[in-house]
Write a structure and sequence with these properties.
With 450 residues, the chain is an alpha/beta fold. The chain is built from 16 helices and 15 strands. Strand 5, helix 7 and strand 6 form a beta-alpha-beta unit. The radius of gyration is 22 Å and the shape is globular. The chain binds pyridoxal-5'-phosphate. The site of pyridoxal-5'-phosphate (PLP) has 14 residues, from helix 6. GO terms for molecular function: adenosylmethionine-8-amino-7-oxononanoate transaminase activity; pyridoxal phosphate binding. This is Aspartate aminotransferase family protein.
Length: 450
Amino acid sequence: MNNPQSWEARADEYSLYGFTDLPSVHERGAVVLTHGEGPYVFDVNGKRYLDANSGLWNMVAGFDHKGLADAAKAQYDRFPGYHAFFGRMSDQTVMLSEKLVDVSPFDHGRVFYTNSGSEANDTMVKMLWFLHASEGNPKRRKILTRWNAYHGVTVVSASMTGKPYNEVFGLPMEGFLHLTCPHYWRFGEPGETEEQFVARLARELEETIEREGADTIAGFFAEPVMGAGGVIPPAKGYFQAIQPILKKHGIPLISDEVICGFGRTGNTWGCQTYGFTPDAIISSKNLTAGLFPMGAVILGPDLADRMQAAAEKIEEFPHGFTASGHPVGCAIALKAIDVVMNEGLADNVKRLAPRLEAGLRAIMERSEHIGELRGIGFMWALEAVKDKATKTPFDGSLSVSERIANTCTDLGLICRPLGQSIVLCPPFILTEAQMDEMFEKLEQALNKVF
Ligand code: PLP
């Protein structure tokens, strides 16, 4: 960082970093990347990192998949322009919508495109407001989510997100209500069984609906496994307990599959892994294997029909983004779905998930300060605690997880600190040897920090 002309200094001078611990990056310098090979990325100094973060959960096919780059190039050559509105749509968009409904858990549905997961959640909220109003229920506007949920950064999706850092923006907005996070290990009360914990959360939902009035609630959004909240799989039976309550009150359940979708949990959708069928799915990230910014709202049969009827009523759904359904993004997504589902990537997740879990469990057992391992498929978190028996977290301004992640970076492994946890969500192409490299570097880092 002493050389004013260095890449690190230039990054520090001209960029406003988001979601970055600033004292740490000022001291260490940004890692400026130039290229990638498989699950590895390389910085300007030629240093290689194994990216156990898959970019940001999304580079599931690695950083140099030729088939995906070729699909992008072919579509840029053929028709890079887009026509998303006014009755025009590219052939790629038509094909992708068909494909998405085909691979969804729905036997009939409709798709709407955005540029990101945040926008897809915003779009879904507007759809719910639009259709409830059209059906004569304009008061149905409140949105239910959970503490620790992550749904994005736009004003609406940040209001849905259940993270205290949004208080600096004066969020959540009114009408966005957060229920208890279904993390039994952390939020279960002393002596409470997992079953009792789930029953308590179901009661809380029922009481919230009764207190607020079902006729004021537009929808309930949930990630099958909370990702940015620290990889939190739901307590056993959670969705089975809450879905009948939502159904009884006519509240749509929206599955935010921005992380879980397309293979991360070992199945195409996280909702399949956890045995529930939502009313709509929010997709992004893996949708294009990280090669194009794109999100999609996939409506199941009931919402698809109701939204279509609501739009027909006023002859228009007045919403959309300039690049909605961009043909290059759609061509990449069509290829990405094929790559993940038919080139062995989803199978690799299924095959290697038990090995990944076993390796991380062994690390946890050898460590004095890893209190919990949680996850599924290719998404896992190790939670650091000062005391395993009492689950007491560490304190200090630079969190212990931040220190572990920085040490991993020094050792050539990228993983993500989230709260008190270290998150590992490698690309789906990871081999056994690369997994062993990840275990080795992670354990080395833990030994240095603790
Ligand atoms: N929903 C979930 C579950 C996410 O994990 C994310 C991003 O990490 C989003 C929504 C927001 O997506 P984006 O960052 O593309 O706006």
